[in-house]
């Protein structure tokens, strides 16, 4: 206990800041989830920028190995105090926020699936209220922004147009509004998400900091044969856990109708991922996953890897000829896309992801590379897939354009560049607390509660009487 108190005392300084997020264990380099890797990159890049200052990092992270822990790791204090789908450990977040009473800045990295089910997620504003009572400045990073779950009804196992879906939609939008009221800044990863969120949060409160792109050293000596493929195989890589909204079923159906080979290259589809931790065990998801595995087994040219260890992720990107993102809807900035760009791989995105072009750095890189939207954003159809494969194999001009784009965007979204924006936000944000603004927010909050309750009641009555 004395050791714990000593560590808390050591890091309880006004110059420090708190990060709430999943975080890699001491045995992992970058973590086995998208959020843990993202947080690791954010914290590491900020740590370098803070090297000549007195500021330090405190991580309130997820429990690993089934137990709470407090330890120092590379000059960072790691407090493992919460776990998914459990309310009690979340009280520890408030407890440690209280113990670190001198630390006023909190960066809260949020993905819905990270902290648990819907009941746990909607309780997050209660934690934010406690933080405000403890006089914390909250910087809330929303990694997903979707304001209408109709496009995700199959992913969630809900009936389109149902009362339940309508109620969840209203609760979700009320969640965004509440987060906006309680946070000093809300961070999103693309301009598309700022536009969506601005319906519930004032524009001045929303900060766009794009998903960073890691600089990697490509191992040109790594061969396809190392993973059981042949040298002349053309590998289409779909990376990430299997989920309905990622369109895995769509690309399998299209792939099944493609020729076995093109330009003397044998076509192979690799789905590099396993079950979604957030969805596993749910009846509708198990049915979907079983359908995917059945489709895979029916075609020997399709591989489903299952969950990949951290050291194997880069291997699959190394051997990929084309990275595909056949998403059915745009809810977050894709970590797998950032990987594809890191490895300078040709990629295709479904037209559902066209919102990327609303981000100035993305669209500017697109224009500078002389790419057209039709070169990258496609319908997931046989003709469009054929054209994309043909371009990669036989169109040198196209490949050079894509390579130019990846170089341009990597420079703009390099973690070192983005860390400056986090640094300025956390340590130079001079936004002061204004009584008038706070009162206005409170009135807006009250109004929004009334409107939300009315909309829920309207949805219920509409479904009863129609």
TrEMBL record:
<dbReference type="InterPro" id="IPR050194">
    <property type="entry name" value="Glycosyltransferase_grp1"/>
</dbReference>
<feature type="domain" description="Glycosyl transferase family 1">
    <location>
        <begin position="223"/>
        <end position="328"/>
    </location>
</feature>
<dbReference type="GO" id="GO:0016757">
    <property type="term" value="F:glycosyltransferase activity"/>
</dbReference>
<protein>
    <recommendedName>
        <fullName>Glycosyl transferase family 1 domain-containing protein</fullName>
    </recommendedName>
</protein>
<dbReference type="InterPro" id="IPR001296">
    <property type="entry name" value="Glyco_trans_1"/>
</dbReference>
<dbReference type="Pfam" id="PF00534">
    <property type="entry name" value="Glycos_transf_1"/>
</dbReference>
């Amino acid at each position: 206990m004395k050791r714990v108190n000593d560590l808390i005392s050591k890091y309880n300084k006004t110059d420090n800041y708190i990060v709430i997020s999943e975080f890699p264990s001491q045995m992992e380099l970058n973590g086995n989830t998208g959020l843990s890797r993202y947080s690791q990159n954010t914290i590491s890049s900020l740590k370098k920028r803070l090297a000549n200052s007195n500021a330090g990092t405190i991580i309130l992270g997820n429990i690993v190995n089934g137990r709470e822990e407090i330890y120092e790791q590379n000059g960072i204090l790691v407090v493992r105090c919460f776990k998914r789908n459990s309310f009690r450990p979340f009280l520890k977040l408030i407890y440690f926020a209280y113990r670190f009473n001198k630390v006023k800045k909190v960066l809260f990295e949020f993905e819905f699936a990270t902290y648990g089910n819907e009941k746990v997620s909607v309780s997050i504003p209660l934690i934010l209220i406690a933080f405000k009572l403890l006089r914390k400045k909250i910087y809330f990073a929303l990694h997903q922004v979707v304001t209408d779950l109709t496009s995700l009804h199959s992913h969630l196992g809900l009936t389109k147009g149902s009362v339940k879906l309508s109620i969840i939609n209203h609760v979700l939008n009320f969640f965004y509004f509440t987060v906006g009221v309680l946070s000093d800044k809300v961070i999103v990863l693309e301009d598309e998400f700022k536009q969506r969120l601005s319906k519930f949060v004032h524009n001045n409160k929303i900060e766009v900091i794009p998903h960073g792109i890691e600089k990697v050293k490509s191992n040109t000596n790594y061969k396809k044969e190392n993973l059981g493929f042949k040298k002349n195989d053309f590998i289409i890589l779909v990376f990430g856990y299997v989920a309905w909204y990622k369109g895995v079923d769509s690309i399998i159906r299209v792939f099944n109708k493609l020729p076995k080979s093109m330009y003397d290259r044998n076509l192979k589809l690799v789905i590099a991922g396993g079950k979604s931790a957030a969805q596993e065990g749910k009846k509708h998801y198990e049915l979907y996953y079983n359908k995917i595995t059945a489709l895979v087994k029916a075609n020997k040219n399709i591989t489903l890897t299952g969950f990949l260890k951290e050291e194997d992720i880069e291997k699959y990107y190394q051997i990929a000829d084309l990275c595909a993102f056949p998403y059915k809807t745009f809810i977050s900035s894709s970590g797998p896309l950032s990987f594809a760009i890191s490895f300078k791989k040709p990629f295709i995105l479904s037209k559902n992801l066209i919102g990327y072009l609303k981000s100035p750095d993305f669209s500017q890189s697109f224009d500078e590379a002389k790419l057209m939207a039709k070169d990258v954003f496609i319908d997931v159809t046989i003709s469009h897939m054929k054209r994309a494969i043909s371009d990669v194999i036989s169109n040198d001009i196209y490949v050079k354009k894509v390579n130019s784009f990846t170089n341009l965007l990597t420079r703009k979204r390099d973690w070192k560049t983005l860390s400056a924006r986090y640094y300025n936000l956390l340590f130079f944000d001079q936004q002061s607390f204004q009584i008038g603004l706070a009162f206005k927010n409170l009135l807006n909050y009250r109004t929004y509660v009334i409107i939300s309750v009315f909309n829920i009641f309207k949805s219920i009555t509409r479904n009863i009487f129609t």
